[in-house]
């Protein structure tokens, strides 16, 4: 898997625009992947997006600077339990790294009835955003929380006047739900294209 130091390509924005994503264990390295994004220019919420917002209206969140978040051993244990129950292959050392030693700078903390149910780790610049990693209580996996977490970052990014919100990896068989995001595009054959089910 090819990697490069994003500084060689002038800016974070250029690295993302060329289809690269940051490597989770090394803050200066990006890798080429089937990246996807929401093109925020003139994109609007679909009826399905609005349905998700309505069904998750009881969930609340706060957005803070990641540097102000206290990553404790108790939080690490909680996230580790979620990851294990969800069956993800995600080492806890990598979790700690992206919370404490990476390029990401914003954190959404999601709650239900004042109980924390998820975290979304993001990068925001003056031009783009990237919802890089989400961790959540498995009980909410089928209650639209993961999709709402992504939608909220897209909505906030558009409200802030950003150009694109990057959504991570996508293939027709992986991350398929992302195709329903506003202004959805993915990187295919060295260019950004809209989703075509025949590809």
Characterise this structure.
It is a single chain. This protein is of the alpha+beta class. The protein has a single domain, classed as Aminopeptidase (3-Layer(aba) Sandwich), CATH 3.40.630.30. Helix content is 27%, strand content 31%. It is globular and about 40 Å long.
Name of the CATH first level: Alpha Beta
Which sheet architecture does the biggest sheet show? 8 strands, mixed
Q: What structural class do the secondary elements suggest?
A: alpha+beta
CATH homologous superfamily grouping: Gcn5-related N-acetyltransferase (GNAT)
Overall body shape: globular
Report the strand count.
Answer: 11
Approximately what portion of the residues adopt beta-strand conformation? 25-35%
CATH architecture: 3-Layer(aba) Sandwich
First and last CA, distance: 23 Å
Helix content: 25-40%
How many domain modules? 1
Rg, alpha carbons: 16 Å
Low-confidence spans: none
Count of helical regions: 5
Nearest-integer average pLDDT: 91
- Element-by-element helix/strand order: EHEEEHEHHEEEHEEE
Order of strands, main sheet, comes to 5-6-7-8-9-4-10-11
CATH topology: Aminopeptidase
Question: Secondary-structure map with pairings?
Answer:
Blueprint (H helix, E strand, L loop, with lengths): L2 E3 L6 H6 L2 E3 L6 E4 L2 E5 L7 H9 L4 E6 L7 H14 L5 H9 L5 E7 L2 E10 L3 E9 L8 H15 L4 E6 L14 E5 L2 E3 L6
Parallel strand pairs: 8-9
Antiparallel strand pairs: 1-3, 2-3, 4-9, 4-10, 5-6, 6-7, 7-8, 10-11
């Amino acid at each position: 898997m090819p990697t490069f130091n994003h500084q060689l390509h002038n800016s974070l924005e250029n690295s993302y625009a060329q289809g690269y994503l940051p490597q989770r264990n090394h803050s200066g390295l990006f890798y080429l992947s089937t990246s996807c994004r929401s093109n925020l220019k003139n994109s609007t919420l679909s009826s399905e997006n609005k349905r998700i917002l309505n069904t998750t209206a009881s969930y609340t969140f706060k957005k803070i600077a990641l540097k102000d978040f206290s990553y404790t051993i108790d939080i690490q244990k909680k996230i580790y339990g979620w990851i294990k129950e969800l069956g993800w292959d995600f080492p806890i050392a990598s979790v700690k790294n992206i919370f404490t030693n990476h390029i990401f700078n914003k954190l959404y903390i999601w709650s239900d009835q004042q109980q924390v149910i998820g975290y979304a780790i993001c990068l925001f610049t003056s031009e783009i955003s990237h919802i890089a990693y989400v961790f959540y209580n498995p009980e909410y996996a089928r209650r639209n929380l993961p999709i709402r977490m992504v939608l909220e970052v897209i909505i906030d990014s558009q409200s802030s006047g950003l150009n694109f919100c990057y959504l991570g990896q996508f293939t027709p068989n992986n991350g398929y739900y992302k195709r329903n995001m506003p202004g959805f595009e993915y990187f295919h054959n060295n260019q950004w294209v809209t989703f075509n089910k025949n590809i």
